[in-house]
Amino acid sequence: FSPSVLGTREHWDAAYERELQTFQDTGDAGEIWFGEESMARVIRWLGKQKVPLDSSVLDIGTGNGVLLVELAKSGYTNLTGIDYSPSAIQLSEKVRDKEGMSNITLKVEDFLAPSAELSGFEICIDKGTFDAISLNPDNAVGKRKQYLRSLCSVLKPEGFFLITSCNWTKEELLNEFREGLEILEELPTPKFCFGGRIGNSVTALVFQRK
User: Rounded distance, CA 165 to CA 202, Å?
Assistant: First the structure.
């Protein structure tokens, strides 16, 4: 991928500062990455697998925290969201408090340098964070490798990793996460047709930690 400002902390700090101001002005929580269907897809899968409602869930790069709010509304009780942007965490705290979801824990954390207490999660969810890391102008390849190391340190053995990406194909993601994880299934995502070929604008995969 070409390096992009979308891979920099400065970009996301500025973006979430704007969204924080908008929320304070209008009550609008801002953009939902990959749309509401992407959240419903994750929640449907967890329900289908009968994942216990008290399972520990980590949302990697939580942004405005809306996914965690939806999980809480679906009955999940052990929810943590992290983001390296303090503005994102401020926004997600305001969204959480507005919705009255006190069982959501939010922390400013850089997933590429996780703190010691960030461990033992049974479910890790990523909607676009790995995509953003892949666009970092400063050693994106090294950061992707560190992402995998961090993931394997915070996710319990046998734990599930659900990733949604618009930059990576299924085959590419299988290659990126082949060490320490195995693919369980590909989740259905919207298809499009262009020039007679059918493709997916988004890839959603479920891995299990070995």
Answer: 6
Strands (E), 31-99: 56-60, 78-83
Domains of the chain, residue spans: 5-188+199-209
Which class would CATH give 5-188+199-209? alpha beta
**What distance lies between CA 42 and its chain's CA centroid?**
11
Measuring CA to CA, which residue among 41, 112, 96 is closest to residue 63?
A: 96
Mean pLDDT by 10 residues, the chain (210 residues): 75 86 79 77 96 98 96 97 96 95 96 96 96 89 96 98 94 96 92 63 94
Angle at 164 between CA 114 and CA 186, to 5 degrees: 120
CA 71, CA 38: separation in Å to the nearest integer? 12
Q: Is 48 exposed, middle or buried (0-12, 13-18, 19+ CB in 10 A)?
A: exposed
